[in-house]
C-alpha cells in the first residue's frame, strides 16, 4: 500500500536557522515524490519534485531509497517560508491512472 | 501559468439537498481532473478521477451515487454531492493535469482554491 508519513504536525524555527521537514514513504514500486506548499489563504502549489533535482526558493529534497525518505531542507529559513507543507507520492489510482497520495502535512512557522 | 478555478468557494445547504461544485481549467485543457476531500487538520484524500468523455473512477470507499462527477468538456468537471448530510461537510478541492496534442503536458497537477461545504 502507498503511504506517506510526515511525523511532525508543527515545526517552529527562527529566521536564519536551518529547517528540515521530514517525509517517509511506503511504496513497492519506483516512487515519484513531490513537495507541495500551501501559503496562508492560498491554494496548494507544487514546490519541487525529486525527478527534477532542483532547488526552489532555497529548498532541496533528496530521495533516499534506502531510508525511504524524501526530507525537505533549507539552510536558512525565512519568515515568508511559513506555510503548510505536504509531501506526496505518485502512484496508481483506480482505473489505471495515477494519483497523488499526500502526507498529513507539516505546518512550518518561521519566527522573526 | 496554469490556473484552476472552483465555484462556489463556499456553500451552506440544508440536509437532504444536492450541491454542485464546478472545477474549471482556465488556460489549458485537461482530460483528467481529480477531486479531493480534506477534513479539518487532515490531509487531502483522493475521492475520484474525472475523465473527459467517460465515467469517473472512484477510489475505494467513495460512493459514486453519492458523489456524482461529470466531465463534459476539456475544461470543466463538476462534482455533485447528492442528498447532502452534515457528515458531508468538508473542504473539496479539485486539480487538473494539462493536456495537449494527445498527451499530458506535465505530470504536475494544478490545484483549485477549494470549496467549503457546510451541511446544516
Jot down its keywords.
heterodimer; A: 112 residues; mainly beta; six-stranded mixed sheet; 46% strand; B: 120 residues; eight-stranded mixed sheet; four-stranded antiparallel sheet; 0% helix; globular
The largest sheet of chain B is: 8 strands, mixed
Shape of chain B: globular
Q: Tell how many strands the DSSP assignment of chain A holds.
A: 11
Q: What is the CA-CA span between the terminal residues of chain A?
A: 41 Å
The topology string of helices and strands of chain B comes to: EEEEEEEEEEEE
Shape of chain A: globular
Radius of gyration of chain B: 14 Å
Structural class of chain B: mainly beta
Radius of gyration of chain A: 14 Å
Mean of all residue-level pLDDT scores of chain B: 90
Strand content of chain A: over 45%
Q: Output the helix-strand order of chain A.
A: EEEEEEEEEEE
Largest interface: A-B, 21 and 23 residues
Helix content of chain A: under 10%
> Which class best fits the helix and strand makeup of chain A?
mainly beta
Question: Secondary-structure blueprint of this entry?
Answer:
The complex is a heterodimer of chains A (112) and B (120).
Chain A: E1 3-5, E2 10-14, E3 19-21, E4 24-26, E5 32-38, E6 45-49, E7 60-61, E8 72-74, E9 83-92, E10 98-102, E11 106-111
Parallel strand pairs in A: 2-11
Antiparallel strand pairs in A: 1-4, 3-8, 5-6, 5-9, 7-8, 9-10, 9-11
Chain B: E1 4-7, E2 10-13, E3 19-25, E4 29-38, E5 44-51, E6 57-58, E7 67-73, E8 76-81, E9 90-100, E10 103-104, E11 110-111, E12 115-119
Parallel strand pairs in B: 2-12
Antiparallel strand pairs in B: 1-3, 3-8, 4-5, 4-9, 5-6, 7-8, 9-10, 9-11, 9-12
Structural account:
- The complex is a heterodimer of chains A (112) and B (120).
- Chain A is built from no helices and 11 strands.
- Chain A is an all-beta fold.
- In chain A, strand 9 and strand 10 (98-102) form a beta hairpin.
- Chain B is mainly β and 120 residues long.
- In chain B, the strands form 2 sheets. In chain B, strands 2, 4, 5, 6, 9, 10, 11 and 12 form an 8-stranded mixed sheet that branches. A 4-stranded antiparallel sheet of chain B has the order 1-3-8-7, with no helix packed on it.
- In chain B, a hairpin with a 5-residue loop joins strand 5 (44-51) and strand 6 (57-58).
- Chain B starts with a strand and ends with a strand.
- The relative contact order of chain B is 0.33.
- Classes of the chains: A mainly beta (112), B mainly beta (120).
- The A-B interface holds A 32, 42-46, 49, 86, 90, 93-95, 97-105 and B 4, 32, 34, 42-46, 49, 51, 57-60, 93, 95, 107-109, 111-114.
